[in-house]
Design goal:
The chain is of the alpha/beta class and 789 residues long. The chain is 46% helix and 11% strand. It is found in: Cell membrane. It is a peripheral membrane protein.
């Protein structure tokens, strides 16, 4: 059947610009490696049901969002999916398929999704001598433009990404002389070039949206980086935002289209005007199986939460507030088992301190707050700084000298010959077994300041303290010792180290935030003002900070010398409980890590050596296997073994009749947990597009931008294979997040009515929403709340 090309458009309209903006908005952002945070790669598609989003991605990127049929077949045969899960999934998905049809679907061979084809891909397919270099060329261009760390040829200050491409294309031998002349004929101004290209391509707004999104997905990593600039470095978008990248991609398509003959050009144009089809029968079946897989976990969780939790015989003497990170769940459980005097709480690990911390030396200041928040305050590494500054600057000057020598044209062979033995010794030394250093407390100088301003006023400090106390939900009786436990990890030669640190602190350790929060709550002026405002802290309560090393599960108490003498015996008891909890947690984690050591001392030594081994691809499993978020009082989960899979945030429904605290939790921690969960899900289900590939083949781009794999210039986002797979099987179950809330139905539904982004995630099935009852869990569906028996 011959496709007929639609008539060219008469002019470029506002609808075309809106279509381009919509397509660009479909790409999720990414963050630099040194301030890396987990991102939901489908954030820009949240307004679509997940099945419809998959149908679009199948046509535009050739991917599906479910696992292969064999994955569900194995889960069915080994009992991970039970018959009752499948029957419940049919009902929840309102599927027209019956059990027999679903079982038959598992026997069908997997089919590759048929994606739409760009002009250069069409040329490469029809002319074997032609190679599709356009997307590799765009990726190389981005690597060169954004790399200010290693490259020798710097961009002209203020030059746009499009302008850089237009200049570099004069020397691009992938282009013919005629094509280079065509590029030179394009306007030098990005906006004018955009208008010229849109007029020449002559697509309807709907077709343009499909084309632009498809092209961006071909360079998804760099598109995500350009999108991320608007989130974490807005000033850079004046020269290099995603709009600049779109114009370059359209220009390449414009060049390729000129090489097609008229019949192929008509086919090319017609495909973008096709309506995106809905999910076919096989994909409907796989989504039903995915739902059954998730319902199986939810039934298991429902039974646990219906168990009568352990009751507290007496008020706690120590309250320890941990980050909601799933790795805290195991330690909290063992800590409370080690001592009846200790109660634990869950709260976002930045402890309400949205700061940017300025270290001594040449290192850049980094935010220590959730990636969706702009830091409002600045802290500085404390004195004495002179010698520390000098040492760090000398180290960086040495590194820069070697770096410049390494990339100099005359040093290709001479540098290796003259310094090879020295570098050989360094490689040998780094290969020797050694321990990873434990996360150390960062000294802080004086009070923290507003960014670019004066030290915080008393009113500002009190407002911060009130926000923290509200999120902690300490209850009626505050313990004599309140400990804020941040967390960090330790590993050498690991570009993705920030992914193992605190996500609430933009991939940094939470010790600085914990120390600032403790200092704030111990401030006598702040305490007096809190008492006047009706949120007092007892004069007998002391607040201190600590760091949980998630590699070894050791907790280091900070500023313990400031603890009043009358609490010294309580502090000693707490340290003993922490040591006991650490031993139990290490024993629980050892098998999954393949640590065979017998005895805690040997086990601890093995974990430290994992972090110090520069060739170790997985020092720890991080947040692998995360599956749920629980917003409830600790009484709902105390004593329950949740397998280190649940984010635990304190929420007391009795103290929140208006639902304001719940709304804050569903628009902040819940979104963060969703981003983490779907990044892990995507890295398993769609690793080629959303995973970082093989760590063994990684090279870091630009010092901190990201990683590439092998000799490909495409930027890889998401998680490396080694963070998810142990070489034999997946260590992360790809499940959409199950959010469990201890609150009345009406309160939860009220938040959905007021918060459209949250409602989209729930109603379009990007996560599951449940409420806790005495009988177990109720699942929210468009047809109403359903019990999970």
């Amino acid at each position: 059947m011959t496709a007929v090309a639609p008539s060219p458009i008469a002019c470029v309209t506002e609808a075309h610009h809106q279509a381009m903006a919509l397509a660009a908005g479909r790409i999720a952002p990414t963050w630099p490696l040194d301030s890396w945070i987990a991102v939901n790669p489908w954030w820009g598609l949240r307004d679509l049901p997940i099945e419809e989003a998959e149908a679009r991605l199948a046509r535009r990127a050739g991917v599906t969002l479910t696992l292969p049929a064999g994955f569900y077949r194995d889960a069915w045969e080994n009992g991970r999916i039970q018959p009752e899960d499948l029957r419940a999934a049919i009902a929840v998905c309102d599927s027209p398929l019956d059990e027999a049809t679903l079982l038959a679907a598992l026997k069908q061979p997997d089919q590759q999704a048929m994606r739409w084809t760009s002009a250069w891909e069409w040329l490469a397919h029809d002319a074997p001598a032609t190679t599709d270099d356009s997307f590799e060329a765009v990726a190389e261009l981005c690597a060169g433009y954004f790399d200010h760390h290693q490259q020798r040829w710097e961009t002209v200050p203020g030059e746009t990404l499009y302008g850089w491409w237009r200049t570099q294309s004069r020397h691009d031998r992938r282009l013919s002389a005629t094509q280079r002349q065509r590029v030179a004929s394009l306007p030098a101004d990005t906006a004018t070039a955009r208008e010229t290209l849109l007029a020449d391509l002559a697509l309807s707004p709907e077709a343009l949206e499909a084309l632009v999104h498809t092209l961006l997905l071909r360079v998804n990593g760099w598109a995500s980086w350009c999108q991320g600039l608007a989130w974490h470095t807005p000033v850079a978008t004046r020269h290099a935002g995603i709009d600049e990248l779109v114009v370059i991609l359209l220009a390449w398509e414009w060049l390729g289209l000129a090489e097609l003959d008229e019949p192929h050009r008509a086919h090319w144009r017609a495909q973008w005007h096709q309506a995106t089809p809905g999910a076919d029968r096989d994909l409907q079946a796989l989504w039903c199986w995915q739902c059954a897989y998730e319902l199986g976990y939810q039934r298991h969780l429902s039974k646990k939460l219906a168990t009568r939790p352990a009751s507290r015989p007496e008020p706690a003497s120590v309250q320890a507030a941990f980050c909601i990170d799933v790795r805290s769940e195991r330690l909290r459980r063992h800590l409370e088992a080690a001592s009846n005097a200790v109660d634990t709480l869950g709260v976002a690990g930045f402890f309400g301190m949205p700061i940017i911390h300025d270290p001594a030396g040449p290192a850049r200041a980094l935010p220590r707050a959730p990636g969706l928040l702009s830091p409002r305050y600045r802290t500085t590494e404390s004195t004495p700084l002179d010698e520390l500054h000098r040492r760090r600057y000398r180290q960086e000057a040495s590194r820069q000298g070697v770096r410049h020598a390494k990339y100099h044209a005359l040093s290709t062979f001479t540098l290796v010959e003259t310094t090879g033995l020295a570098w050989g010794w360094k490689l040998l030394k780094d290969s020797l077994p050694r321990r990873a250093p434990a996360p150390s407390p960062t000294p802080i100088e004086g009070p923290f300041h507003a960014v670019g301003g004066e030290p915080l006023s008393l009113a500002e400090r009190v407002a911060l303290a009130q926000g923290l106390l509200g999120s902690l939900a300490l209850g009626k009786e505050v313990a004599p010792l309140l400990v804020l436990v941040g967390h960090d990890s330790a590993s050498d030669n690991n570009p993705h180290h920030a992914g193992l640190a605190c996500g609430a602190c933009s991939g940094q350790g939470g010790g600085v935030n914990a120390r600032l929060a403790a200092r704030l709550l111990n401030d006598s002026e702040v305490r007096r003002e809190l008492a006047l405002r009706g949120t007092p802290l007892p004069a007998t309560t002391h607040v201190m900070a600590a760091i949980h090393d998630t590699l070894t599960d050791r907790v280091t108490l900070l500023d313990s010398d400031a603890v009043p003498s009358e609490l010294s015996s309580l502090l000693e008891h707490f340290e003993q409980a922490l040591n006991q909890a650490g031993r139990a947690t290490r024993e629980e984690r050892a098998t999954a890590l393949g640590v065979q050591a017998v005895g805690d001392a040997q086990r601890l030594e093995a974990l430290q050596r994992r972090g110090g081994d520069w060739s170790q691809p997985r020092p720890e499993w991080g947040l692998a296997n995360n599956a749920a978020l629980l917003l409830a009082p600790r009484e709902a989960s105390r004593g329950l073994d949740l397998d280190g899979r649940v984010f635990l945030h304190e929420y007391d429904p009795g103290c929140d009749p208006e639902g304001t605290a719940l709304e804050a939790l569903m628009t902040a921690p819940m979104l963060v947990a969703n981003w983490i969960n779907l990044q892990y899900y995507a890295s398993v289900a769609v690793p080629k597009l959303y995973g970082a590939g093989n760590k063994v083949l990684h090279s870091v781009v630009g010092g901190h931008i990201g990683v590439i794999e092998g000799n490909s210039p495409q930027l890889r986002i998401g998680l490396p294979l080694q963070s998810l797979h142990d070489g034999t099987s997946w260590r992360h179950e790809p499940l959409r997040l199950t959010v469990v809330i201890d609150a009345p139905r009406e309160r939860i539904e009220g938040v959905l009515a007021r918060q459209p982004d949250v409602a989209k995630l729930v109603r379009n099935r990007w996560l599951w929403l449940c409420r806790r009852t005495e009988a177990g869990l109720e699942l929210y569906t468009p047809a109403g709340w359903q019990c999970l028996a």
